[in-house]
């Protein structure tokens, strides 16, 4: 995927710029011509003289890696952002040519920003630093910024005093607008059309009875339906509380006169 992002057109533009700046030919293979780091060090020395004081002859691999490392540190000081810079192995071991190309384009953009005649890359915007007088800064503290909103065209018309209750009503219901604290607002419900007809005084007992039973209005002497009903009941045959009730069967027992005083048949 990284190889697919490599742009051959950008390579041709970079080749023309580097060869024109250094005066040296890279070779048929662009990346192989840069692998020893010599042309790269000469490029940054042309853009900013003295960036790499000593360029090693590419005799051994560590000479080449040292040249690449010196180039990367030099372009960092030149102004290229660290996240735009490739690693030495990306070029030396051919692991990420796309990142190498991106770094060279970022270097061209930085060179264009510094005033060099470069035909590729983009010119970075220059930093514009503004300084304000301390008195102006203090005056700004008294102004409500737009980030906090705006009070333009605002007024307190129709606002009530703090703590005053605001009544809610619906004009469609035909109710008058509440004007004082004696009016029950819709938040508390409404008493429109209501009356106290049939209501008893607080604490008065309300009697419950069934008209179909023909009972009179109950009083304190009447046993309520909640306790059952004694209608049609009597105490006939009831004995005094505490007396024993004899139970016997006339079929098996004779009258009391058949028994003696001792209770045995005589």
What does this structure look like?
The chain has a domain at 20-114: Calponin-like domain (Actin-binding Protein, T-fimbrin, domain 1, Orthogonal Bundle), CATH 1.10.418.10. It has 7 helices and no strands. The protein has helices at 8-22, 30-34, 38-47, 61-78, 88-92, 97-113, 134-140. Helix 3 (38-47) runs parallel beside helix 4. The model has no long low-confidence stretch (mean pLDDT 77).
Give a quick set of tags describing it.
266 residues; mainly alpha; Actin-binding Protein, T-fimbrin, domain 1; 7 helices; 29% helix
Distance between the termini: 132 Å
CATH topology of the domain at 20-114: Actin-binding Protein, T-fimbrin, domain 1
Quote the average pLDDT: 77
CATH class of the domain at 20-114: Mainly Alpha
Low-confidence stretches: none
Shape: elongated
Biggest pleated sheet: none
Named CATH architecture of the domain at 20-114 = Orthogonal Bundle
What is the percent of helical residues? Answer: 25-40%
CATH homologous superfamily title of the domain at 20-114: Calponin-like domain
Number of helices: 7
Beta-strand content? under 5%
What is the N-to-C order of secondary-structure elements (H for helix, E for strand)? Answer: HHHHHHH
Number of strands: 0
Structural class: mainly alpha
Taking Cα atoms only, what radius of gyration do you get, to the nearest Å? Answer: 56 Å
Describe the structure concisely:
The chain has a domain of 95 residues: Calponin-like domain (Actin-binding Protein, T-fimbrin, domain 1, Orthogonal Bundle), CATH 1.10.418.
């Amino acid at each position: 995927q990284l190889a697919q992002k490599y742009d051959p057109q950008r390579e041709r533009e970079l080749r023309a710029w580097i060869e024109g700046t250094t005066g040296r030919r890279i070779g048929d293979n662009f990346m192989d011509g840069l692998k020893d780091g010599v042309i790269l060090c000469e490029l940054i020395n042309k853009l900013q003289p003295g960036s790499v004081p000593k360029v090693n002859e590419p005799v051994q691999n560590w000479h080449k890696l040292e040249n690449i490392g010196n180039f990367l540190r030099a372009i960092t000081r030149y102004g290229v952002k660290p996240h735009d810079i490739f690693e030495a192995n990306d070029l030396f071991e051919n692991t990420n040519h796309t990142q190498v190309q991106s770094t060279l384009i970022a270097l061209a953009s930085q060179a264009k920003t510094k005033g060099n005649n470069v035909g590729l890359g983009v010119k970075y915007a220059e930093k514009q630093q503004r300084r304000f007088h301390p008195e102006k800064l203090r005056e700004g503290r008294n102004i409500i910024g737009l980030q906090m909103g705006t009070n333009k065209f605002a007024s307190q018309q129709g606002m009530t005093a703090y703590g005053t209750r605001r009544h809610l009503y619906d004009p469609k219901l035909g109710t008058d607008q509440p004007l004082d604290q004696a009016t029950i607002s819709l938040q508390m419900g409404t008493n429109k059309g209501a009356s106290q007809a049939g209501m008893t005084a607080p604490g008065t007992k309300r009697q419950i009875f069934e008209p179909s039973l023909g009972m009179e209005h109950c009083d304190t002497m009447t046993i309520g339906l909640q306790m059952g009903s004694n209608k049609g009941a009597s105490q006939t045959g009831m004995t005094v509380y505490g007396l024993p009730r004899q139970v016997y069967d006339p079929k098996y027992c004779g009258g009391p006169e058949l028994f003696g005083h001792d209770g045995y048949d005589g």
